């Protein structure tokens, strides 16, 4: 029964961590929005629409790099050690990652409509993010469509690992394909070098999104742990 | 090593023999290819677009779609009566099973590649350029990477309730590099550009195939493990 109590204690620790991180993340998010809407200067060439940058870039950092990095790493470790807790961390990160890549895919075209004159311009970064979104989708479908949950976890880990290995090559190839075509003048995705206030706002954004994401995955991880414990207890009660 | 190759070959030979006798997958893929060629003919207005300008894209998409159709059935037959359990019980290592499956799928897909070339050449009277050997090389290298990824994910999709319907969702995002570099190289060869222009694409297709084979061989045991 000792390990049982330790698991309970760990569970409540994670809950506190999740609540603390999420609260801090939300507070930083309020600060970020204050900075974005009232504090930072309007960019001279693109105008007001450039402010979406402070949401878009942090969401991309979290959804593409941080979340998918955790998914890939945890997938590999899960296949190696077979520890369910690592898989719980992977699925928590994947869910967060899918939310944040969705934010990237919504804010990117909104900005593009004003700055480029079109919602979708096959920008390599945006295209890679869309493909990553589908890799996340496949990750969740294989998990949920197997009869044996353990098998679904293994399948998902395989999707995560192959996706992580292929993603750099996908990005390379879509960038290469773009560079074959002449770059239309309106579609220049270049951004100006940032002035200190803008850099400050961007840094607030990166911090806010990272902290909120970690809070959310701590919540999801705690939920997976509770589900796992509940299942164990039900099984024990059934066998007793 | 000799034993390993023998085990690999045994799996491939068994699958090829089944395919040779039933002609189930090649038949379906060949029929698909011819009919897609007919549909493309009516989907493309020749007064607006010259078929040879978009031939490389059509060839690659037909190979990918027909290939997905056939690859999806890699493990279907053995799913019946627990036949695959029997295959797994043999002392052959899992990576040999995987590479054997890849080999048999590859032979089948190469047959389809030639059918695609024949059908498109006939229907759209395409000129294969001055180096048809390199053209076949590009298609064969791209097809190898495609088959390696496809065989792994065919094992995944067969293990799910969604089955073959899941395969394109898992496979197509990962195949973007193959399609991009494959169509680019094919297009240049069809347009009779110098061979040096497709050198880079060939290298990347080759690297993709090698990595896909290695990763698939390494991960296959986690997919088929009970």
Q: Could you characterize what this model shows?
A:
The complex is a heterodimer of chains A (about 240) and B (about 230). Chain A has about 240 residues and is mainly α. Chain A is built from six helices and no strands. Chain A has helices at about 1-40, 55-80, 85-115, 125-145, 150-180, 195-240. Chain B has one domain. In chain B, α1 (about 1-20) packs across α6 (about 95-125), α2 packs parallel to α6 and α3 (about 50-70) runs parallel beside α7 (about 130-160). Chain B contains nine helices and no strands. The mean pLDDT of chain B is about 90. Classes of the chains: A mainly alpha (about 240), B mainly alpha (about 230). Chains A and B meet through α4 and α5 of A and α7, α8 and α9 of B.
Provide the descriptors you would attach to this structure in a database record.
heterodimer; A: 240 residues; mainly alpha; B: 226 residues; 9 helices; globular
Mean pLDDT of chain A: 86
Percent strand of chain A equals under 5%
N-end to C-end Cα span of chain A: 15 Å
The DSSP helix count of chain B reads 9
- Spans of chain B of 5+ residues with little confidence (pLDDT < 50)? none
Mean pLDDT of chain B: 90
Helix content of chain B: over 70%
Question: Which percent range describes the beta-strand content of chain B?
Answer: under 5%
Number of helices of chain A: 6
Coarse shape of chain A: flat
Topology, number of strands of chain B: 0
Biggest sheet of chain A, in brief? none
